[in-house]
Amino acid sequence: MTRYWWFEKITPHYSHGYHVIPIYEKRTPYQHLLIYKNPLWGRFLVLDGITQFTEKDEFIYHETIVFCPAAALESSPEEVLVIGGGDGGVVRELQRLEGVRKILQLEVDEEVFRACQKYLREIAGDYEDPRVEFRITDGSRFVAQEAPPESFDLVIVDCTDPIGPAVNLYTEEFYAGLYKVLKPHGRFIQQASIPRFFPETLPMALERSRKIFPLVEVLRAPVPCYGDEIAFILGSKDGSSAAEPKQSFKGRYYNPSVHRASFALPDWWKELAQV
Predict the structure, then answer these.
(1) From 141's CA, which of 21, 106, 174, 195 has a CA 20 to 30 Å away?
(2) Of the listed 57, 109, 158, 161, which one is catalytic?
């Protein structure tokens, strides 16, 4: 069985090394897709040279991006829009929430979904669930042109960094589309990269989203395979803060205390976020 060292280039001067068994590779119409296996991290997905998640620690990311915004609502979200997230981890966590009646997921790259269903199936939610509707389409076009106004309680933007197919998901026009499709009490969440390595992403996403939403907050989560904490932006249509949970959820990583702590930022993050 072929084994070799694969290095994820984080910056021109820093990389992560994995001793891997190659599982799958394909150049899709949108990106270069790889799936590897490592004795420590298990199977993991790589898009355009960047590790998206590993079996070992993906639950930290997925619980944060689902439970933090959901817990900040007065009641469990009933109608949820997921943009991206072709691995299915967001759907899995949403299916744990009582009260969810509809999950509409939009994924632009069908090959990511197919590969994850075949090689990373244990991570994904149940796509036979009648509450789940899955479409291959452009999420930015959907919120701008197709979605009815005020139709979702929660929008989860589980995308890659703002390169390649995700560029359109970090624009002022996209955030205006999110504002339009959210109900008056609704919230959205989006990952904003790793400030230690990519400090330009968080302030860019904040500047653009804050032109549309009355309040956009920053939270963080420690995902070990990323090499440092990842940032998320969480916007509310009514201007209310998400820092205090209104509901009590519990996962392997997430709980109400972790929720509160996620919003506590170091000073250098505050400088980036201008808070």
Answers:
(1) 195
(2) 158
Helix (H, G, I), strand (E, B) or coil at 99: coil
58-273 maps to which CATH number?
A: 3.40.50.150
* CA separation, residue 106 to residues 91, 138, 194 (Å): 11, 7, 24
Residue 158 known to be catalytic: yes
pTM: 0.96
By CB atoms closer than 10 A (0-12, 13-18, 19+), residue 247 is middle
Dist CA 80 CA 120 (whole Å): 23
Question: What pLDDT shows up at residue 16?
Answer: 93
Digit-coded pLDDT (tens) for 177-200: 999 999 999 999 999 999 999 999
Domain boundaries, the chain: 4-54, 58-273
Q: What tens digit of pLDDT does each residue of 9-46 get?
A: 999 999 999 999 999 999 999 999 999 999 999 999 99
- C-beta atoms surrounding 172 within 10 Å: 13
CB 30 within 8 A of CB 46: no
Topology of the domain covering 4-54: Spermidine Synthase; Chain: A, domain 2 (2.30.140)
Residues near 107 by beta carbon (within 8 Å), at least 6 away in sequence: 84, 85, 86, 113, 134, 135, 136, 137
Contacts with 267 (C-beta within 8 Å, 6 or more apart), sequence order: none
**pLDDT confidence bin for 274, thresholds 50/70/90:** confident
